[in-house]
Amino acid sequence: MNEFYPEGLKTENKRSIITTAVLAEAKVQQTVMEAPVIMCDASHNLIVNLGCMRGIIPRNEGALGIEDGTTRDIALISRVGKPVSFIVTGFSEDKNGKPYALLSRKAAQKLCLDHILNNKKVGDIIDAKITHFENFGAFCDIGCGNIALLPIDSISVSRISHPKDRFYLGENIKAVIKNIASDGKITLSHKELLGTWEENACMFSAGQTVTGVVRSVEDYGIFVEITPNLAGLAEPRVGTQIGQQASVYIKSIIPEKMKIKLIIIDSFDTGYTPQLNYFYSGNNILQWDYSPKDCQKQITSRFCS
Fold first, then answer.
1. What pTM was estimated for this model as a whole?
2. Considering the chain, what percentage of its residues have pLDDT values greater than 70?
3. Do 25 and 102 sit in the same domain of this protein?
4. DSSP type of residue 109
5. 271 DSSP 8-state letter
6. Same domain, 239 and 173
7. What is the mean pLDDT of the segment spanning 27-38?
8. What are the two backbone dihedrals, phi and then psi, of residue 112, each rounded to the nearest 5 degrees?
């Protein structure tokens, strides 16, 4: 039975020795395999290194949507140097008599998508890999190169100006299925896995000086994120800018108001990015309550099909 993962995530599942016999068996069993793309030719066919022989993924078999134009050819070109998933569809020989395998990434993607639509539901937690960014969100490979959108407002409770403030390209993450549309398009969420206000606040105490990232500069104060799902408010400070790293003194933590009061000791430019810390390790979320129970403001996520 096939297991489906984002391309390149489960490299240990690849067979270390691929022989002609292994490929022939994979063709019969319709086994999803993975190997690196070494070239995209002028016709946008993908050439794959199988070890024992070359593999060729014809352009129209390179991805779902290529044939009807809903997926652009850049999706093929950008796979050069990276692993791709595929099934073996046949064998042939080139003009010099050398054998090669005919492969289909599109077929692997369809198998994976059918598996997700038939076996996964809203609220399920899945593996995902960040593939590219837009201002409105991050796009993620959720299996065999199938892409889902993670909107920016679902990335974390702590507000960010761009998805690259939280992730890097190629990063492997966990995500929650937020919606499955009638056309099969999938939307993800992420903030629910980063812990509640209390779970995050428990890592800190008044009197500590810690590192954070400036996320917002307002007339009344500066919001500094001290961990991905937790930010506090510091008094205004001249010269402090969004995106800077800041060392902050924790003045007080007030659960009933869901507030953390900070004092900025220093702020400076750096490439520092807070490390993701997943608090939830289950397979499904039905409801997530970020706010403390006695807090007047309530932030809640509910997942239902």
1. 0.91
2. 97
3. yes
4. H
5. -
6. no
7. 95
8. -65, -45
Q: What separation in angstroms does the CA of 264 have from each of 105, 230, 235, 274?
A: 51, 16, 8, 17
| 202 and 55 share one domain | no
Does 48 lie in the same domain as 35? yes
Contacting residues for 50 by C-beta, under 8 A, at least 6 apart:
18, 23, 35, 101
Among 193, 191, 157, CA closest to 284: 193
Q: Residue 85: is it exposed, middle or buried by C-beta count within 10 angstroms (0-12/13-18/19+)?
A: buried
Domain CATH code at residue 203: 2.40.50.140
Q: Does 235 map to a domain?
A: yes
Based on the fold, state whether residues 224 and 209 are members of the same structural domain: yes
∠ CA 232-155-8 to the nearest 5 degrees? 135
* SS3 assignment for 200-268: HHCCCCCCCEEEEEEEEEECCEEEEEEECCEEEEECCCCCCCCCCEEEEEEEEEEHHHCEEEEEEEEEE
184 lies in the same domain as 290: yes
Structure tokens given for 50: 């199988």
**Mean pLDDT within 129-152:** 97
Q: Are the C-beta atoms of residues 62 and 107 closer than 8 Å to each other?
A: no
Structural domain of residue 252, as residue ranges?
197-268
In what helix (H) or strand (E) does residue 299 lie, and over which residues does it extend?
Answer: none
| pLDDT for the residue 9 | 85
Q: Whose CA is closest to 128, among 112, 142, 146?
A: 142
Residue 121 above 80 pLDDT? Answer: yes
